Amino acid sequence: MPETADRKDDHIRIIEEEDVETAGTGFADIELIHEALPEIHRDEVDTTTTLFGSEVAAPIVIESMTGGHPNTTKINRALAEAAQRTNVAMGVGSQRAGLELDDEELLESYTVVREVAPDAVLYGNIGAAQLLEYDLEAVEEAVEMIDADAMAIHLNFLQEAVQPEGDVDARGCLAEIERVADGLSVPVVVKETGNGISGSTAQRLADAGVDAIDVAGQGGTTWSGIESYRAAAVGDDRREQVGKLFRAWGIPTAVSTLEATAAHDCVIASGGVRSGLDVAKAIALGARAGGLAKPFLRPAGQGADAVTELIETLTLELETAMFVTGSDSIDDLRDTEYVVSGRTKEYLEQRR
After folding, report:
1. Where are the beta strands (DSSP E) in the chain?
2. Could you report the per-residue pLDDT of 136-194, keeping only the tens digit for each?
3. Which HAMAP family does the record associate with it (predicted)?
4. Residue 3 pLDDT greater than 70, yes or no
5. Which one of 1, 86, 197, 224 is least enclosed by Cβ atoms within 10 Å?
6. Is position 64 annotated in a ligand binding site?
7. According to the annotation, is 66 in a ligand binding site?
């Protein structure tokens, strides 16, 4: 099995078996103001919203996780089937392996998502570093691979720096992102992978014409930690230690969400989002949706029913938060009152 595909399998195994979770999203410091007289009917709370030009039933995104190894086909099938049933958005993992390797079994780990989710909002995924190698036609090939409704360009340079075989040339990526945003046939989302996006970087991306920003802030799965485990497995002690040192590096998700929404109108908050209440808090901070990855992984191994059950639970939690803040729509929730305290308040004050 080629190196890129083996790496995908390593990632899933490590996430399932090792401690790769960090705290510090900032959501614990965000409190929504309770409305004792909501004056709305609980059953009429409307969670529908629009992402990438399509209506979804709830502002919940199954974040990009995997693909590129035959072992991941089952996972992506279950996630996509659940996305189809519940009408939420879903992304696939990096499609680099699908573009560069001539392997039908491997390709199926991506194409399966559209096969089982003909109506769901699906987005593709390619690394910013790979844009230095790919022309627009190659990115369109990634779109066509899953008949994507949007394309995510992921920023994962800390992960690459720790990865023994990492790509650490970040020169010229912004210009390439602008090129793709200008010429691609579908909307372009730029997403981090667990370390957050600052307000100034969000502004640069907005100026480059991207259609959405997924902050993927600090808190939740640590890719630096994952690569530390991989480095240890091949005896690379130096990179193992670097991965540990930067395990909790980044901008907390709540902070990154607030900063990004000041620069761009379409922000997805991910990075340690673990409940429908976290999604509600993210939307109150200005996000359009909240995204989760790791919480879906174990259910995906059990099948589409388990994934569907988790989505329904998250939606119920979100609806409850909307009801007790007097928000009968997602637009209302974006305007609801909140209080910021603790480390997040201090962080924001220092940033301002």
Report:
1. 21-22, 30-32, 49-51, 54-56, 60-62, 89-91, 122-127, 150-155, 188-192, 212-214, 220-221, 267-270, 289-292, 338-340
2. 999 999 999 999 999 999 999 999 999 877 889 999 999 999 999 999 999 999 999 99
3. Idi_2 (MF_00354)
4. no
5. 1
6. yes
7. yes
Does 77 carry a binding-site annotation?
no
Sign of the alpha-carbon torsion through 332, 334, 337, 338? positive
2 contacts 101 by C-beta, under 8 angstroms: yes
Q: Is 96 annotated as a binding residue?
A: yes
Q: What is the CA radius of gyration of the chain?
A: 19
- Contact yes or no for 331/287 (Cβ under 8 A): no
Beta carbons of 281 and 334 less than 8 angstroms apart: no
272 is in an annotated binding site: yes
DSSP H or E segment with residue 194: none
**Is 8 known to sit in a ligand binding site?**
yes
Q: What is the pLDDT of residues 320-346, one digit of tens each?
A: 999 999 999 999 999 999 999 999 999
What tens digit of pLDDT does each residue of 188-243 get?
999 999 999 999 999 999 999 999 999 999 999 999 999 999 999 999 999 999 99
Residue 136's Cβ-count burial label (10 Å; 0-12, 13-18, 19+) is: middle
* Percentage above 70 pLDDT, the chain: 98
Written as six digits, the tokens of 265 are 């109108």
Cα 212 from Cα 214, distance rounded (Å) = 7
Describe the crossing of helices 276-284 and 304-323 by its angle, rounded to 10 degrees.
50
pLDDT in tens, 286-324: 999 999 999 999 999 999 999 999 999 999 999 999 999
Residue 320 marked ligand-binding: no
Q: Is 7 annotated to bind ligand?
A: yes
273 annotated as belonging to a binding site for a ligand? yes
221 known ligand binder? yes
Tell me: is residue 159 an annotated ligand-binding position.
yes
125 is an annotated ligand-binding site residue: yes
Distances (CA, A) of 317 to 58, 79, 129, 168, 279: 11, 20, 37, 40, 9
Taking the CA of residue 266 as centre, how many other CA atoms within 13 Å lie in the half-sphere pointing to its CB? 16
> Does 95 appear as a known binding residue?
yes
